[in-house]
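Support case: magnesium ion complex. Customer-provided input:
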Amino acid sequence: MSADGAASPDGAPRAALQAEDIRAGYGAGDIIHGVSVLAASGQVAAIVGPNGSGKSTLLKALAGVLRPSSGRVLAGGRDITGMPPEEIARAGVGYVPQVDDVFGPLTVRENLEMGGYLLSAREVGPRVERVLRVFPRLGQMLTRRAARLSGGERKMLAMGRVLMLEPAVFLLDEPTANLAPKLAAELLSEHVRALAENGAAVLIVEQRARAALGIADHAYVLGGGQVLMAGTPAELSASSGFTESFLGGGRDRSRG
Ligand SMILES: Nc1ncnc2c1ncn2[C@@H]1O[C@H](COP(=O)(O)OP(=O)(O)OP(=O)(O)O)[C@@H](O)[C@H]1O
Ligand SMILES: [Mg+2]
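Agent response - structure generated as follows:
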């Protein structure tokens, strides 16, 4: 991992990615209205919120797919606001979008190799091997087209593709969407959590609030393009408003 340790000299978690007062949208007015979030090295920060609350829009603004209309994004202390996606990838920020996360007509190996597009030719092979140690299942299907993978395998490939550049920050947009609950829990606890254990900062969008809190160090609740609540999983679970909206209504079950 290119993240260089989980704590700053004073012992506080190091902010690998910091977004300050971000506003962003699709041209016809802002959809994100002044959102600040922080992802620390070695930690998982979760963003939960209902459909249409702006979770994906926020991640797109952080990844450079959308240009924020105001606010600042810092990666490792460096200002990356408004940079194109390739520059942001170069700055150590990896992004797995909610949809179109792999290239269907290409094989698993070709998808991984494409993920290494910023590497030199001789770095690619060893890096593929390293990614396969993290996702051994992919090693058994290197010549299969991505379009033929199961939902879970596809999500592993999407994460593996981003892992090719060993980013210090992972932006993951609903990696468990359309997965059965057991598979979703496995992906979160085994793979997403492992990225943080290896030193990276993970900012993950999840509709499965309970599952997300289970692996998160910190969580944000987004609603109407704003942060409505933020805190540790314990703090949020202790808030009756949060529990009623996100843990009691069967959302997790209804998606499984
Ligand atoms: N490409 C686009 N052009 C215009 N409006 C968009 C576009 N993508 C999303 N929106 C709008 O922005 C708002 C926020 O959408 P966004 O995709 O960020 O929500 P979300 O929280 O990720 O939802 P979900 O949980 O369904 O993925 C919605 O009202 C949506 O209709
Ligand atoms: Mg979304």
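The domain at 15-255 is CATH 3.40.50.300 (Rossmann fold).

Case will auto-close in a few days if no follow-up is received.
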